[in-house]
């Protein structure tokens, strides 16, 4: 259905974008022209002398480029270079439209502020609350699938966190792909298409760190469509693109009939034809450079119109702009935009495209740069391409327009870390890491996608087929980040960190702790279980008993063990298979050496936790219960006793089941109930009076001697020719 709607929309889209584009015009400015002439011939690449912009486009061997300069808060210069379609030798024109890639995110975020303003979707409403309001959707399925181990995390994931990359999700980028219809692209990305394209997953607790996630934008996109009951493309067109004057930009899919759409060619090779961005919010905007510059200008002017005809008219609500341009802790990032003081910016890349915008609100200047060409390629250790060109042009703009104190100088193919190098390169530090000497070399960096080992940099291998990640091979030490156990020396990765498996994985003087429900960790052996101590603080468990570090709870014991806290003995760890309550078939299988009714039970008070005693009722399995409720404990009412019987301020038995094995509950009239040996009970065999609790043996059986020997309100009958007996 979504695909069919897209085709219908493209018919209308073609009518607009195949004709001359009726774009907003730039407003010429003489001062800006002078500054631009200086900038235009000051593009530094790797050579000593600078290039002109036209020559820099040729040197980077990209198809073409467009840029717009903003000055005094208005778009004033629009320039274009090279080819829109290198394969067909069609030149870039004033009407050329580009894949906007990740610079789409700021535009998308304005759609969410509009939805929030309309009461359709709260920026701070949790995914949990969203699912209560909208049950049985792709979002509920996503939560059920990926948050099994972190069930509370969706409570803290909100659209604001999704749009600021602080929701703790993976899936860094959402790539565009050749035109292929898809019945439900959102579902494919959010829930996972196949082994090579896994679901969007949590990687750390929401709100604790910034982690760029195009996958998070995809989740937000689905939430917007559900909340508004409209396709994302339609809602953004009606609430952002049209009202804010971006009439020549669209979130619809690219079509080969869109004659103004740039093609991603580079070095004479056109591998990047018309693209479909299955996911719109993260990078699906097709934008006209002046359209985008108009939006940036409005943002710089608190949403007010800059054109003289309607100057000062509020186009974008200021509150919406404030939402977008406010940092979301802990990030230096707002909603779809990087923020530094009064400066805001964002870059983007798709296959065959590099985009960038930069704005300085205080100085009222900015630039939009859109390039169609391969992002990076290398020649003699020098990195060229759309990304290099884009960055060089923005740098020249900052210098010429007075927002940077840097001087123009050649680029250096040097690095201090892998992140300084282009995609597909790593930082070769040689025997000594020295900035200015280290070189970027071909080879994928750690965490970059790979299909085979030889495309990864040194000391890296490719994990996963057909599409995997470059990672270290058993060299990551305990405590450092990992994404797979094979990366770790210990062979164990828990919660994105290498952890110990045994003491041998820890530094000298440390042991490996393997607590239940927590990640393993190394700690000083001086604090290990069994180490000598004189006070609790000397132990990792914070428990010192009998001059020895012992467990305080199950979490202090190795996996598969529990902490036993017997009365009068030091606590100890033992197999959970032997714990009280564990299944058993014989006494030797239990730590207490007592198996009853197929369960390990206490044999004596020493098998029970502190403050508890072992109860051994007749006909029932032994059990531990609070000593405050034991037989003989002080009481004022029945509920204070385990037996539910309080007499004469003491807990007493109520029935035989409350007494230990071999004893019965005696309930004499006028006296408190008590437990005594069943061998002395009424009815027990006897040969003399002293063998009976009643001190009366008749005809080989213990019988009552008085009413006091009978239960409850019964009376003792003493017939002349028969033995005594109790009766009502």
TrEMBL record:
Transmembrane segments: none annotated. This is Serine hydrolase. Residues 53-376 form the Beta-lactamase-related domain. The keyword Cell cycle does not apply. InterPro entries: AmpC-like, Beta-lactam-related, Beta-lactam/transpept-like, Dickkopf_N, LDrepeatLR_classA_rpt. It holds the Pfam family Beta-lactamase. GO terms for biological process: negative regulation of Wnt signaling pathway. Residues 1-22 form the signal peptide. It comes from Candidatus Nitrospira allomarina. Residues 415-463 form the Dickkopf N-terminal cysteine-rich domain. Keywords: Disulfide bond, Hydrolase, Signal. GO terms for molecular function: hydrolase activity. The keyword Hydrolase applies. GO terms for cellular component: extracellular region. Coiled coil: none annotated.
């Amino acid at each position: 259905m979504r695909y069919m709607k897209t085709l219908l929309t493209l018919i209308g889209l073609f009518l607009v974008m195949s004709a001359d584009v009726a774009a907003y015009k730039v407003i010429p400015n003489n001062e800006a022209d002078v500054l631009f002439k200086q900038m235009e011939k000051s593009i530094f690449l790797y050579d000593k002398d600078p290039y002109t912009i036209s020559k820099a486009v040729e040197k980077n061997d990209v198809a073409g480029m467009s840029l717009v300069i903003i000055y005094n808060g208005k778009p004033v210069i629009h320039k274009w270079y090279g080819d829109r379609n290198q394969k067909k030798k069609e030149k870039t024109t004033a009407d050329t439209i580009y894949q906007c890639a990740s610079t789409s995110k700021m535009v998308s975020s304005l759609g969410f502020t509009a939805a929030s303003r309309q009461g359709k979707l709260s920026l701070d409403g949790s995914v949990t609350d969203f699912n209560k309001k909208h049950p049985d959707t792709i979002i509920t399925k996503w939560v059920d699938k990926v948050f099994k181990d972190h069930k509370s995390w969706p409570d803290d994931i909100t659209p604001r966190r999704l749009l600021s990359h602080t929701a703790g999700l993976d899936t860094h980028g959402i790539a565009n792909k050749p035109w292929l219809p898809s019945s439900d692209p959102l579902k494919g990305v959010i829930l996972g298409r196949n082994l090579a394209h896994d679901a969007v997953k949590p990687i750390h607790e929401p709100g604790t760190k910034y982690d760029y996630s195009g996958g998070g934008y995809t989740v937000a996109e689905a939430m917007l469509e559900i909340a508004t009951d409209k396709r994302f493309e339609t809602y953004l067109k009606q609430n952002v693109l049209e009202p804010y004057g971006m009439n020549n930009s669209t979130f619809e899919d690219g079509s080969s009939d869109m004659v103004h759409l740039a093609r991603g060619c580079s070095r004479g090779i056109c591998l990047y034809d018309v693209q479909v961005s299955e996911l719109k919010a993260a990078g699906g905007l097709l934008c006209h450079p002046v359209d985008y510059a108009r939006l940036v200008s409005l943002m710089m002017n608190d949403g007010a119109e800059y054109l003289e005809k309607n100057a000062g008219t509020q186009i974008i609500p200021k509150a919406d702009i404030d939402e977008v341009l406010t940092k979301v802790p802990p990030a230096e990032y707002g909603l779809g935009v990087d923020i530094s003081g009064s400066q805001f910016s964002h870059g983007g890349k798709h296959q065959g495209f590099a985009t960038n915008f930069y704005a300085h609100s205080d100085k009222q200047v900015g630039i939009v740069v859109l390039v169609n060409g391969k992002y990076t390629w290398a020649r003699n250790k020098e990195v060229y391409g759309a990304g290099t060109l884009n960055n060089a042009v923005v740098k020249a703009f900052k210098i010429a327009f007075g927002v940077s104190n840097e001087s123009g100088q050649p680029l250096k193919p040097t690095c201090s870390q892998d992140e300084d190098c282009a995609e597909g390169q790593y930082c070769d530090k040689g025997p000594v890491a020295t900035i200015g000497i280290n070189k970027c070399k071909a080879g994928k960096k750690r965490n970059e996608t790979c299909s085979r080992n030889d495309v990864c940099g040194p000391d890296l291998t490719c994990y996963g087929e057909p599409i995997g990640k470059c990672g270290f091979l058993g060299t990551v030490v305990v405590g450092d980040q990992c994404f797979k156990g094979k990366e770790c020396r210990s062979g164990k990765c828990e919660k994105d960190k290498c952890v110990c498996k045994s003491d041998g994985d820890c530094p000298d003087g440390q042991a490996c702790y393997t607590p239940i429900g927590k990640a393993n960790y190394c700690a000083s052996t001086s604090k290990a279980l069994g180490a000598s101590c004189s006070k609790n603080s000397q132990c990792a468990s914070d428990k010192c008993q009998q001059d020895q570090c012992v467990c305080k709870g199950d979490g202090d014991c190795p996996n598969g063990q529990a902490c036993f806290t017997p009365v009068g003995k030091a606590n100890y760890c033992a197999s959970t298979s032997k714990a009280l309550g564990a299944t058993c078939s014989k006494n030797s299988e239990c730590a207490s050496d007592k198996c009853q009714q197929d369960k390990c039970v206490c044999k004596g008070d020493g098998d029970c936790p502190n403050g508890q005693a072992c109860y051994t009722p007749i006909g029932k399995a032994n059990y531990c219960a609070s000593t405050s409720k034991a037989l003989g404990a002080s009481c004022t009412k029945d509920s204070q006793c385990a037996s539910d019987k309080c007499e004469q301020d003491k807990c007493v038995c109520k029935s035989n089941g409350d007494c230990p094995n071999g004893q019965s509950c005696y309930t004499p009239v006028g006296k408190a109930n008590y437990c005594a040996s069943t061998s002395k009970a009424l009815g027990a065999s006897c040969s003399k009076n002293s063998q009976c609790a009643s001190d009366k043996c008749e005809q080989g059986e213990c019988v009552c001697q008085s009413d006091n020997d009978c239960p409850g309100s019964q009376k003792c009958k003493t017939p002349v020719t028969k033995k005594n007996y109790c009766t009502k």
